[in-house]
Structure formats: structure tokens, C-alpha cells
Design a protein that fits this description.
The complex is a heterodimer of chains A (391) and B (135). With 391 residues, chain A is mostly helical. Chain A has 5 domains: 78 residues; 103 residues, no CATH class; 83 residues, no CATH class; 45 residues, no CATH class; 52 residues, no CATH class. Chain A is 70% helix and 0% strand. Chain A has 21 helices and no strands. In chain A, helix 16 packs antiparallel against helix 17, helix 17 packs antiparallel against helix 19 and helix 19 packs antiparallel against helix 20. The longest helix of chain A is centred in the first third of the chain and has 19 residues. Chain A is elongated. Chain B is built from 2 helices and 6 strands. Chain B has one domain: Dimeric alpha+beta barrel (Alpha-Beta Plaits, 2-Layer Sandwich), CATH 3.30.70. In chain B, the strands form 2 sheets. Chain B has a 4-stranded antiparallel beta sheet, with helices on one face. In chain B, strands 3-4 form a two-stranded antiparallel sheet. Chain B is an alpha+beta fold and 135 residues long. The radius of gyration of chain B is 18 Å and the shape is flat. Chains A and B meet through helix 20 and helix 21 of A and helix 1 of B.
């Protein structure tokens, strides 16, 4: 059975139920039940009109539930208004569902969970596995999220930026489990791009495709990280790169630059270079300058220092790093150091020939690393330099 | 079956036999160590004895309640904290002897020179639910 098809229909089926008068939480439950039913029934008996089948079954599940609910009388009115069976409307409110599931009243983790379930059609169990939490915890998170947005009307326009932040989170925090969250984020962003004409949606989709294209080369067979410069570029997915670049170029041509387009442009410049040495670092620095203007985040300025180090030499990179240190209040930067700051300093000192400082900083960076893969990678870097120094 | 926590310490455990900081190993020795840990966990998954394993960042903070309507007090991290947990593995095994056997294997992870570290691991039984039949 085509699970991709099944899940691509989820948001529009849900939207139809809501438009027929079901409240969002009950409709979402009903659609989940219909999906489970489809997984059971379709392999032996595939429907001719999958969407119509899902709408019919979900609506029946919704009515069953509504009938057995305490508020029976009010809900029974809905039965009288039940639309006649027939073709389902082709225009749907999928976009409104994206807005609802990324509503600003939701915490990021709730918005992510609700989006994956209501828009993505994943089961609670799959989402729980993906984020390494117990299923009961994820079920609670989702039902609380649904209660939070219960009063939000579906016909209000939302902010695309909030939706993009949620999709970015799904892509960037892809953990484990059966579900490939990065691929799921791409699917949902692609679906969103089909619904709304917005250069930043295109920018995010391009960014995801360009990063996803490098995934096969990013880890060694033993699970260790392979830095960009050392990746086997023959293993990059050229089809995804070509698509990402095409989408990005169309978006950039509209001259409404945003941070996702700028990030995608940087990713595209990396993807374009046949070897690490041929990377156009000067242009990458220019894009980081754009990004700094758009966001002024310390993470961007840290990455800019790396690019400056490549474009103008390690001394220039270290100077850019020093500027960054001067501009952030020392007490807060000590307590919440910018992730990877020490690793970047180590790298620039190594390229500058100061191996002893670099080795010390790599060990310190390993100590601060937020995940095991990075910690192991940085420990190996320190080990590599120390072996060199004692030889 | 009984659950045991295997605790690894950054600080606070007696010194291991092969006591060389990891940054002084060769990159290949670091990789070999990581591989050993992964293989160990994978093997326990296969035998049906693995429950959970997590690594912890080396630094955290102390936090305590500071009274009604006040934000919690935070303090630390303290460089002098004697006992610092690095990570854990939870196993579900048939006997205490099996738990000790597995902790011994984990402690044999290779370090500098490819030799076992002989690191001291703490083995702590979980407190369990009371049994149904007690007499």
C-alpha cells in the first residue's frame, strides 16, 4: 500500500471534516482512526477514490464518537446536516491546518508534534519513537496541543513564518526511529509550497533539499561525522541538489530575500563546488553578511568567521571571531556559550599553525559538545593533533 | 529479571588501570573505543537485556526551591564536585552475577594503546515493585 499517498491525503481529509462542522480535536482523532483502518483494509481492498474513502470513513468515525459523547443532543444536529456522499471538493484548507498546527500559542515541541500528526498523518507511536519519548507522553502532548488551539478559527490567516519555523525544527532535529523526520519535513514543506506562493517557503524547501543531498556522505560507516571538506562529493545526491538550486533561483529572482533563501544560497555554493578547495568562499562570506543583516544571530556570525577564515586566511577568521566575542556580554556568553564556538576557534588556530592551542581547544570543545557524534569527532581532532605534537 | 544501572563517572570513581585522558589517545584508539561501546549495546539489544543508555554532558547546575513566588535558585557548575556522572546503561538481567559480568565487559573497553581501560563502573540494583507472593 502506498503510505505516502495515504499521508499526503491526511490534511485535506481533516480539513473537510472541520469544514463540515467537526471540531478540530474530534476530527483529528477521527482521521487518525480512518488512517489506521486504511492501513488494515487497503492492501486487500484498495479503494478507487482513496480520498473519498478516507473522508467517508473518518466522518463515520467522527459521528460514532459524537453520538456516544455526552453532548449527544447538540451533536446529533450534525447528523441531520450530513452532506450527501459524492466527490470531495478539490480545493481544501490544508494551508489553514498548517497555520493551526504552528499556532503561536503552542510551544515549539507541541507545534512539531501536532503538525506531524494532523498534517503529516503520522501516528502518535511513530512520533513518540522519533523523539525518543514514551508514547503516553507524546499522546498527552498532542491532546494538550489540540486543547490549546481548540478555540482558534480555521478561517483566519496565519503567519507563514511560524509554519516555517516548525518545519525547520522537524528537519533539523531529526532523531531516529522508523520515521525519517528529515524526509518527512521535506514532504510537508513541498506540500506547503504547493499551497502558498512565498519565496521563503521555497527558500526553506531548497535549504532542506540541499542539506539532505549531502546526508549519505555526512557519516562514515562507523557512524562518525565526516566534515564537509572531507566528504566524498560523489555520494551527494545530485538530483536533490539540482532541484534545490532550481527552486532557490526561482525564489531569489523575486527579490524578496529572507533568511532561509540566504541559508540555501550558502548551501548551494557548497553543493556547486566540485572539490572543497574550489568552494567560492568569497561569495559565501557575502551571503553571511546578508544573513547577519537579516537575523544578526551569533550563530550566523560564528559561521561567518569560519567562511572569512577560508576566504581571507585563518588570521582574518580569528579576527572575526574576536569581534564576535567583543560584541556579546561576557557573563551571558560564559553561561550560554555559542554552540561550536570553541570548535571553530580550534579549527582556525590549527589552520594558523598553532597546534598546541588548537589541541587544547579541541579537547575543550569536545567537553562542551551537545551530542555524542560531535564529541567523538572533536576528541579525535584533539587526539590527532596531540599525536602529532608528541611525535 | 532484575534491572541494574551501570554508572560511568567522569570523576569520583577510583582511578582506572589504563588512566590516560582520551585526548591523548590516537584517533584510531578513540574510534576503537566508540565502536566497542556501540557493539556492546547492540549485543545486549540482541540478547534482550538492554533497556536504555544515555550519555550526559559534563556540566550541569544545582537548583533548589527558594520559597513561594520566587524563582528557583541555581548554582554551579562547581569545578570541585567530586562525583560527576558521565552516563548510564540500564540492563534487565536474570541475576546480579550477570549484571557484574556485563559491567566487567563494558569496563574492558579499549583505551590508550588499544589496551582495556579497566575503568571502575558502578552497578546499582533498581528498587522493584513488591512481589505478589511474599509468604
Amino acid at each position: 500500500m502506498n503510505e505516502a499517498l495515504l499521508r499526503s491525503l491526511t490534511p485535506s481529509v481533516l480539513a473537510i471534516l472541520v469544514r463540515r462542522g467537526a471540531d478540530f480535536a474530534a476530527a483529528e482523532d477521527a482521521v487518525q482512526e480512518a488512517l489506521v483502518e486504511a492501513v488494515r483494509v487497503w492492501p486487500a481492498d484498495p479503494p478507487r477514490d482513496p480520498k473519498g474513502w478516507l473522508v467517508t470513513v473518518a466522518w463515520r468515525k467522527f459521528l460514532d464518537q459524537a453520538r456516544s459523547d455526552a453532548a449527544r443532543r447538540r451533536r446529533e444536529d450534525l447528523v441531520d446536516e450530513e452532506p450527501l456522499p459524492g466527490p470531495t471538493p478539490s480545493v481544501d484548507d490544508t494551508l489553514q491546518l498548517y497555520f493551526l498546527c504552528a499556532h503561536p500559542s503552542l510551544t515549539p515541541s507541541s507545534a512539531v508534534a501536532l503538525t506531524l500528526r494532523a498534517v503529516g498523518g503520522l501516528t502518535t507511536r511513530q512520533i513518540a519513537q522519533a523523539y525518543l519519548v514514551p508514547e503516553a507522553t507524546m499522546a498527552q502532548r498532542i491532546s494538550r496541543a489540540k486543547r490549546t488551539v481548540a478555540g482558534v478559527r480555521l478561517d483566519q490567516p496565519g503567519d507563514v513564518a511560524t509554519v516555517l519555523r516548525v518545519l525547520y525544527l522537524v528537519f533539523n532535529e531529526g532523531y531516529s526511529g522508523d520515521v525519517d523526520l528529515a524526509a518527512e519535513a521535506i514532504r510537508l514543506t513541498r506540500q506547503l509550497a504547493a499551497q502558498v506562493d512565498h519565496p521563503e517557503v521555497a527558500g526553506l524547501l531548497a535549504l532542506m533539499l540541499l542539506h539532505h543531498a549531502r546526508r549519505p556522505a555526512r557519516t562514515a560507516p562507523d557512524g562518525s561525522l565526516v566534515p564537509l571538506a572531507e566528504q566524498d562529493r560523489g555520494r551527494w545526491d545530485t538530483k536533490a541538489i539540482a532541484e534545490g538550486i532550481a527552486i532557490l533561483q526561482t525564489a531569489l529572482a523575486r527579490d524578496r530575500l529572507g533568511e532561509f533563501q540566504a541559508q540555501a544560497a550558502i548551501a548551494a555554493l557548497h553543493a556547486d563546488a566540485p572539490t572543497a578547495e574550489e568552494t567560492d568562499w568569497v561569495q559565501i562570506v557575502e551571503w553571511y553578511d546578508e544573513l547577519t543583516r537579516l537575523t544578526d544571530s551569533p550563530v550566523v556570525r560564528l559561521n561567518r568567521a569560519v567562511a572569512v577564515g577560508e576566504a581571507d586566511g585563518p588570521r582574518a577568521g580569528l579576527a572575526a571571531l574576536a569581534e564576535l566575542d567583543d560584541s556579546s556580554p561576557s557573563s551571558s556568553s560564559r553561561r550560554h556559550p555559542i554552540p561550536r564556538h570553541t570548535a571553530v576557534a580550534a579549527y582556525l588556530h590549527e589552520r594558523d599553525g598553532d597546534l598546541a592551542t588548537a589541541a587544547r581547544l579541541y579537547a575543550e570543545a569536545a567537553h562542551q559538545a551537545p551530542n555524542l557524534a560531535e564529541r567523538n569527532h572533536l576528541t579525535r581532532q584533539a587526539a590527532r593533533l596531540n599525536a602529532h605534537l608528541t611525535r | 529479571m532484575a534491572k541494574y544501572l551501570l554508572l560511568k563517572h567522569y570523576r569520583g570513581a577510583p582511578a582506572p588501570v589504563n588512566d590516560v585522558p582520551m585526548a591523548q589517545w590516537t584517533p584510531e584508539e578513540v574510534s576503537a573505543h566508540m565502536q566497542y561501546m556501540q557493539d556492546f549495546a547492540a549485543r545486549l539489544e540482541k540478547t534482550g537485556e538492554f533497556v536504555d543508555g544515555q550519555a550526559l554532558a559534563p556540566e550541569g547546575a544545582w537548583v533548589r526551591y527558594d520559597g513561594e513566588g520566587r524563582p528557583p535558585v541555581t548554582d554551579g557548575p562547581f569545578a570541585e564536585t567530586k562525583d560527576l556522572i558521565a552516563g548510564w546503561m540500564v540492563i534487565d538481567v536474570d541475576s546480579y552475577e550477570r549484571a557484574v559480568e556485563l559491567a566487567g565487559e563494558l569496563s574492558a573497553a579499549p583505551g590508550a594503546g588499544g589496551e582495556p581501560i579497566h575503568e571502575w563502573l558502578e552497578v546499582r540494583p533498581f528498587l522493584t515493585a513488591p512481589p505478589t507472593i511474599t509468604e
